[in-house]
Design goal:
Strand order of the largest sheet of chain B: 1-3-2-4-6-5-10-11-9-7-8
Shape of chain A: flat
Mean pLDDT of chain B: 97
Low-confidence stretches of chain A: none
Number of strands of chain B: 11
Largest sheet of chain B: 11 strands, mixed
Oligomer: heterodimer
Radius of gyration of chain B: 21 Å
Structural class of chain B: alpha/beta
Structural class of chain A: mainly alpha
Low-confidence stretches of chain B: none
Order of helices and strands of chain B: HHEHEHEHEHEEHEHEHHHHEHHEEH
Strand content of chain A: under 5%
Strand order of the largest sheet of chain A: 1-2
Shape of chain B: globular
Number of strands of chain A: 2
Chain lengths: 96, 484
C-alpha cells in the first residue's frame, strides 16, 4: 500500500495533528511500510469468523445513576491551562 | 547484616514482621541506592523521597498487629502511566508535562491502603508505546546489565529499577508485552495478569481492549504477593472481572509433577536467536526433570499476531489519545483559533512514535478502510484466541522464549519501527487472547539475561505462578545481580 503525501495530510487532519512539511515524506514512507506489513492479514480467509472486540465476556456493564463527589469542580479544573469562572476556557469555536 | 536494598519483598516482609528492621531503615536504604545509581540507570522520572519516608514512618508506627497487606512498609515504584494523586504523572510525554492527577488509580489506592511505601514514578516509552524506553520524551533508561543496551519497554523503568536494586518491586503495564519483555531483558520476573483481573481505572489508556497492569520483582513468590494486593473487581472499571481472587501464595507448592507444558513450534522458528533458543530449551528441559510432561503443540496463527496487534492497538490508541487537546490538562501551544491551537499542541507535543500510531489507527478506522483493516484484525484476533483454546485442551500451560533476542543496543532499532515491533512477537499473542503471561529469568547469552515465558489459561494465574515459582526453586537465575 503506497500512500501519497495528500493521504498523509488528510489523515493528519482527521487526527487533528499538525505535521511539519519536512516530516511528511518520512512519515509517508514509514506508514506505507507498516501498511504493507499488516496486509499479511489479507491472505487469511475470515469468512464467517466473528470479530473479537474484547475478551472479558462481559457486556453492557452499567453503574447506578447516582451522583458521586469523587472529584470536586476545583480538582477537575486544577490542571487546565486556561480557566474562567469554574470552566475550561478555549478560543471561540464560531466566527462572529 | 545484608545490605537492605538487596532484599526481596518476601525477605523484607519477614524481616519487618520479625522486628529486625524498620520500614524507615528499608526505605532509606533504597533511597540511598537510587541516589547512587540513578545517574547510570535513569529509571525514575520522579523520586518521592519525602512522601516515602512519611509513609515508612506511618508503617512503623502501626507495627503492632498484623500487616495491612504483604506490602505494608515495603518500598515500591509505579510506572508513570498510572495516576498518583498529587504526584506528577506524565506517561513519558511532553503533552502531559506538569500534569498532577487529582485522583489515584485503583492500583495506587490499593497500594496506599495496603501500606506500601512509594519511592517514585518510573520512566516508560511515551504512552507505553515502544519496546526499548527510547520513546520516553524525557530520557532513555539504561539496562543495568550493560548500560549500552536498552532495558526493553515500554515498562523499561519499572524493570531497570528492580534490576538495579533501586526498588524491590514495581508496577508496569502491558498492551503487547510491555511487562514481560523488559523483565526478560533485565533478568527479573514479570507478570501480565488476565485481562480484567486488575482494574485499569486511572491507567492512562493506550488500547483499552488489551491494556493490563502487572507486577515486576526478582521472584515469582514476590509477584504473587503484589498481585494479591492489586487484583480484584472494581466498580470503576466496567471490564474488571468479578471472579473471586484466589490466594496466590498458597498456589506455590513447588510441585509440577504431571503438569502438561506445551511447547509451540511457531515460537522456535525463524527470527529466534540461536543462543537464546539454546538457553530457553535447556530451561524447559529442567521442568521435565521435575516431572512435568512436555507436549509439542502448534499455534498456527502466530505469524498474524503482530500485524493484528498493529491495527487494533493503534486504532484504539487513536481514539483514546483524542482527549489530549490542551484544553483540560497539559500545556497548550498558541495558535490562531481553537483548531490551530489543538493541532499544534498535538502535532508538536506528541513524539514521533505516538504520532505514527495515531496516524495508522486513524487511517485504519477511516471511512472505506474499516472493514479491510480494523474488522478483519478483530476477526483474526478470534482465530488467535481459538489457537490457544485448542492448545489448552492438550496442555495446562505453554512455555516459550519471552523475546527473540537479548537486549539490543541503544539506537539499534530507532530508525526502523517495524524491527522494533517484532521484539514483541512472542508476547503480543497473550494480550490479544487476554491470557495471563509470566516471564522468569532462565539464563544468559553474551552475559545478558534471557527470559522464559509461560502463558496460562484465562484467570489461571495460580498455575502460571506455580510453574514459575517451581522453576525458581530448581534454579538460581533469579538470584543473579548485575554488577553496577
Amino acid at each position: 500500500m503506497t500512500l501519497s503525501i495528500d493521504d498523509v495530510k488528510h489523515v493528519a487532519r482527521l487526527a487533528r495533528m499538525h505535521m511539519p512539511d519536512e516530516e511528511l515524506e518520512q512519515l509517508r514512507a514509514q506508514l506505507s511500510a507498516i501498511l504493507d506489513y499488516v496486509a499479511l492479514l489479507q491472505e487469511l480467509d475470515v469468512e464467517g469468523v466473528p470479530p473479537t472486540f474484547q475478551i472479558s465476556g462481559l457486556s453492557s456493564v452499567t453503574r447506578s445513576d447516582e451522583v458521586n463527589t469523587r472529584l470536586s469542580r476545583d480538582e477537575a479544573l486544577r490542571n487546565a491551562p486556561d480557566k474562567y469562572a469554574g470552566m475550561f476556557r478555549v478560543r471561540a469555536v464560531f466566527d462572529e | 547484616m545484608t545490605e537492605l536494598h538487596t532484599l526481596t519483598i518476601a525477605e523484607s516482609r519477614a524481616a519487618l514482621d520479625a522486628g529486625e528492621i524498620t520500614s524507615v531503615e528499608l526505605t532509606e536504604a533504597f533511597l540511598k541506592r537510587i541516589h547512587a545509581v540513578e545517574p547510570q540507570i535513569k529509571a525514575f522520572l520522579t523520586v518521592t523521597g519525602e512522601l516515602a519516608l512519611e509513609q515508612a514512618h506511618a508503617a512503623d508506627s502501626q507495627r503492632n498487629g498484623s500487616p495491612r497487606s504483604p506490602l505494608h512498609g515495603v518500598p515500591f515504584a509505579i510506572k508513570d502511566v498510572i495516576c498518583t494523586r498529587d504526584i506528577p504523572t506524565t506517561a513519558g510525554s511532553r503533552i502531559l508535562e506538569g500534569f498532577v492527577p487529582p485522583y489515584d488509580a485503583t492500583v495506587t489506592a490499593r497500594l496506599r491502603a495496603g501500606g506500601a511505601v512509594l519511592l517514585g514514578k518510573v520512566n516508560c516509552d511515551e504512552f507505553a508505546m515502544g519496546s526499548s524506553n527510547e520513546n520516553s520524551a524525557y530520557f532513555p533508561t539504561y539496562n543495568p546489565w550493560d548500560t549500552d543496551r536498552v532495558p526493553g519497554g515500554s515498562s523499561g523503568g519499572s524493570a531497570a529499577a528492580v534490576a538495579a536494586l533501586e526498588t524491590p518491586g514495581s508496577l508496569g503495564t502491558e498492551t503487547g508485552g510491555s511487562v514481560r519483555q523488559p523483565s526478560g531483558l533485565c533478568g527479573i520476573s514479570g507478570l501480565k495478569p488476565t485481562y480484567g483481573r486488575v482494574s485499569r481505572y486511572g491507567l492512562i489508556a493506550f488500547a483499552s481492549s488489551l491494556d493490563q497492569i502487572g507486577p515486576l520483582a526478582w521472584t515469582v513468590a514476590d509477584l504473587a504477593l503484589i498481585l494479591q494486593v492489586i487484583a480484584g473487581h472494581d466498580p470503576l472499571d466496567g471490564t474488571s472481572s468479578a471472579q473471586p481472587v484466589p490466594d496466590y501464595s498458597a498456589a506455590l507448592t513447588g510441585d509440577v509433577r504431571g503438569l502438561r507444558v506445551g511447547v509451540p513450534r511457531e515460537y522456535f522458528a525463524e527470527g529466534l536467536d540461536a543462543d537464546v533458543e539454546r538457553v530457553v530449551r535447556t530451561a524447559i528441559e529442567t521442568l521435565r526433570d521435575q516431572g512435568a510432561e512436555l507436549v509439542d503443540i502448534s499455534l498456527p496463527h502466530t505469524r498474524y499476531a503482530i500485524p493484528t496487534y498493529y491495527i487494533i492497538a493503534p486504532a484504539e490508541a487513536s481514539s483514546n489519545l483524542a482527549r489530549f487537546d490542551g484544553v483540560r490538562y497539559g500545556p497548550r501551544l498558541p495558535g490562531d483559533g481553537l483548531w490551530e491551537q489543538i493541532e499544534r499542541t498535538r502535532g508538536e507535543l506528541f513524539g514521533p512514535e505516538v504520532r505514527r500510531r495515531i496516524m495508522i489507527g486513524t487511517y485504519a478506522l477511516s471511512a472505506g478502510y474499516y472493514d479491510a483493516y480494523y474488522r478483519r484484525a478483530q476477526q483474526v484476533r478470534t482465530l488467535i484466541s481459538r489457537d490457544f483454546e485448542q492448545a489448552f485442551t492438550q496442555v495446562d500451560v505453554i512455555a516459550t522464549p519471552t523475546s527473540p533476542t537479548i537486549a539490543f543496543l541503544l539506537g539499534q532499532k530507532t530508525d526502523d519501527p517495524l524491527a522494533m515491533y517484532l521484539s514483541d512477537v512472542y508476547t503480543v499473542t497473550a494480550n490479544l487472547a487476554g491470557l495471563p503471561g509470566l516471564s522468569v529469568p532462565c539464563g544468559f547469552s553474551q552475559q545478558m539475561p534471557v527470559g522464559l515465558q509461560f502463558i496460562g489459561k484465562l484467570l489461571d494465574e495460580p498455575t502460571l505462578l506455580r510453574v514459575g515459582d517451581a522453576y525458581q526453586r530448581m534454579t538460581d537465575w533469579h538470584k543473579q545481580r548485575p554488577k553496577l
